[in-house]
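Aim 2, interim progress. The first record below pairs a target sequence with its structure tokens.
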Amino acid sequence: MSLATDGGDESGAGRSRRSSGPRSVKRSLATILLGFETIVVFLGAVVTLGLVSVATEPTPVSPLAVIIGGVLLVAALVGLIGLLRYSWSYPIGWALQATIIATGFVTPAMFFVGALFAAMWTYCMITGSRIDHTNPDQPKEIA
């Protein structure tokens, strides 16, 4: 019998859960923010769809375009959450913040919502990076 803890058991019963160690504060803050932002963007897309559908005047976008755009934006936000372990994903986050602000051209309230989330994203990136750099035990992001 071996007392090894590396999961040498052939049945796999002795394997421990894969742990990547502590996550960076920047990544944790970004994950939380993107999770909330996904919910708000979904609700914003539903409101925009309702406004476009009941509009009496011709609108610059069709309801189908709102549905497709909303689904793509929500999917991009959810996908980005899974990619935050890579350092190249953070510029994509900045691009998504700009895209959400640009949705204000369809629904003007989204200018405010997008600017609010962009400000929170900026805060998370600055504060998270500062905390990660002051704590030497934090893991570095994968390049």
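The second target in this work package is listed in the same format:
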Amino acid sequence: MRTDEIQAVQTDVLIVGAGAAGVAAAVTAARKGLDVILVESGAMPGGELLTGMAIDGALNGHGEWVVGGFITELLEECRRLGGYIGALNDWRLIHYVCYDPEIMKLAVANLLGRHGVRLLLHTFAYDVEHMDAQVQSVHILNKQGRTRITAAMFIDASGDGDIAAMAGASYLSGDKGQYQPLSLMFRLANVDTPALLDFLVREPEHFALGESDAIRGGRSDQEIAQEVKKQGHPTVFLKGDGPLMANAIEAGELYPTALIMIQPTSSQKREVCLNTTRVANVDATRTRDLSAVLEPLSKQIEICTNFMRQRVPGFEHAVLSGLAQRIGIRETRRIVCDEVLAQEDVLSARKRQDAIGKGSHHVDIHQDGIGQLRIPVEGGGSYDIPFGCLLPKGLDNLAVAGRCLSADRPAHGSVRVMGPCMAMGQAVATAASLVLADKSQAARPDFRAVNIQRLRQNLVADGAILDGTH
């Protein structure tokens, strides 16, 4: 094919990025009867859902679900396929939702296919046409050549805010050259859970426990460790400043890191996911710099696997069973939108009438070496995400969803996780369906034309959780 030929495709809604937010948006829009194209640069849809990392921010510190709707359908599909573990508490700061990432691959693909989403994998968005606050088209590139996709509404779920940035939206990035570390999730199988939990009860000083008063509830570390053991799953958090890890780091047996988070992925395989690797202060929008961290992250996996086998009871016979399909990125661009989610909104568990979803994860800023800032939401509750945080200034028919939303850096450290990302994706797709159902919007579709109370009513009708929780 000649590379100067540009094909033309038209759709109702174009979504760029098939991570948690993009998949939620695509399925929601398609369920509303819209023609949807979902563009993904990688080889498989699902993003961080496929890494082995549990879903954070879907439940608050009281164990109440604060995200519903699309996530419920997705997890039910995981359950049907035999890969759902459930909501667990590490008795530290949060509850999270655990599942088998291999089964999640099937669940995501099933939902997209079932609802008729047109999925384009191995496809890059490289240019945007826009005029007078309207995005007209996005240019994509894959092995079939170049294609110009026109649409009425656009959703940027790229994580990095690529489409919004190309359309001229302002953005913030990191903090004066500092960026949260990049990570590579990995999984170990053949883990002896009873031995690990016995170690926790015997020596709780190595583990992070009861960092939220709402979770601690006046209990001692020993009492909390017993609660973790009662749960029966390998759901624990080795802390970098605990004696086990601190001594290993000092002795050179382990790289400097704030944590080794252990979460179950499969009881049948006796498998867990470990969140621990880190290379900080890399701008992940710079492809060469992002690619360069693969080698050190891979080396850290080898080092950590050996450490776990040698030093942590229950891991003596563990085997490396899987790696994430991509490097994990915590922060790049934060698009400047009509509103900014602020640290105080998060920490005070602020509720509001223009909310389209909730978050509950603590303010979580990973740093270089052993540094990590963790501040819980007041009372173990949840906060509301306003619709205006998803509407880039100067653009009418483009919304963002996922970690490229408008937030200050501490708030972003909470809201960037998968639970609220799915809520955002469902919200902007529902908003797009309401705009396109309004014939008066045909000439100039505008996300801001949506009546917020009508949007909220539609979201609640589809299972979203907007009220009634701490």
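The chain has a mean pLDDT of 97. This observation will shape the mutagenesis plan for the next reporting period.
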